[in-house]
Specification:
136 residues, elongated, mainly alpha, Four Helix Bundle (Hemerythrin (Met), subunit A)
Length: 136
């Protein structure tokens, strides 16, 4: 079984940052701190999800090297193809990745607010993906 402890820890950090952000006064230093933590936790959770799912897909390919060549979106396309996740879930993961790619260019308020709007679905999808990864 693949080790999902780091993914679990990232999920917990993301959930905690989200809870704290909701209770912080918008515009305060606390709000900014929790929002920054949420964005970074989102990024780390997303990356870890892709890495673990890629490992889960290795048996579907002729070699580990072939699986290692998959891009992030390919990983989720193949996961849907092999019914590890649904097509709808794959589409949401593409949206999460697109959002993540925007962080390289925009760490401003608009980006953070867009990320916030994804968190509820993201946490559900990560929880479901964790179950898929842990299933033998």
């Amino acid at each position: 079984m693949l080790n999902t402890e780091y993914l679990e820890r990232n999920m917990q950090t993301l959930e905690k940052a989200f809870e704290c952000l909701k209770s912080a006064e918008e515009g305060s230093v606390d709000y900014e701190m929790y929002r920054n933590s949420l964005v970074k936790s989102f990024e780390m959770t997303l990356e870890q999800s892709g890495k673990l799912l890629k490992k889960k897909l290795v048996p579907y390919f002729p070699s580990k090297k072939a699986a290692d060549m998959l891009t992030f979106k390919d990983i989720f396309r193949y996961a849907a193809k092999y019914s590890l996740i649904t097509e709808e879930e794959a589409e949401r993961w593409f949206k999460y990745r697109d959002n993540r790619n925007n962080t390289a260019h925009d760490y401003g308020r608009a980006f953070a607010e867009e990320t916030l709007s994804l968190i509820d679905d993201f946490l559900k999808d990560v929880g479901r993906l964790k179950e898929v990864i842990e299933h033998e």
